[in-house]
Write a structure and sequence with these properties.
Belongs to the DeoC/FbaB aldolase family. DeoC type 2 subfamily. By secondary structure, this protein is α/β, with parallel strands linked by helices. The protein has one domain: TIM Barrel, CATH 3.20.20. The chain has 10 helices and 7 strands. Strands 4-3-2-1-7 form a 5-stranded parallel sheet, covered by helices on one side. Strands 5-6 form a two-stranded parallel sheet. α8 links the parallel β5 and β6.
Length: 268
Amino acid sequence: PRLHNRRTWVSECVFLSILDLTEQIQARRSVKKEWQAAWLLKAVTFIDLTTLSGDDTSSNIQRLCYKAKYPIREDLLKALNMHDKGITTAAVCVYPARVCDAVKALKAAGCNIPVASVATGFPAGQTHLKTRLEEIRLAVEDGATEIDVVINRSLVLTGQWEGSDFIKTSTGKETVNATFPVAIVMLRAIRDFFWKTGNKIGFKPAGGIRSAKDSLAWLSLVKEELGDEWLKPELFRIGASTLLSDIERQIYHHVTGRYAAYHDLPMS
């Protein structure tokens, strides 16, 4: 009983420590005003610009890809002297059936932004293994260079899992998605794994990340837990569909001193 009580006490202490750190991230750790625009532009380069709607069409995929190449209005970038830095999102993320549309649109736009696809029975991952493997094969054949694999989570729950090159907070289709307490646990697992093996595993929070303020908190969290080495698209992504709009809105405010009207910053 004493051992059980001690384990419970340790678990509670760890939990409270994580909650305390979460509050600090949300309340105290903020980027100073003069650096916000730079950090927001950096956040753009980590975004997997995503559309995973049942009514996706080739036309809205084209608009998404255009926005991926031109995430911030050029006049705003010029005002920040960043118009020639080639700022784009990290990738475009779509369903397997829309990979061809995305590849075609990005090629027409003259850019080489990666196309990621949520293959393997998204979002549940409960389809037959043969079907999931075939979905990956077809997505790659159509031009996807990154696959967000949805594993059969029963394997994790029963302890049958190995390391991967990236881990993600959720599919983005759950009731609760990317949260800081869960992220801290994942980031520390990545850190421990790196210390033990020397292998760097990437991290992707996804689902419910909508505000520019949140994006800065995520960058700060990764920087503090894993260091600057992880602040690059090869090891850090943010899965989001509406976040970019708020980042552009905040940059507009930074440049002009006022908030944009709806028609000033269309998703295009």
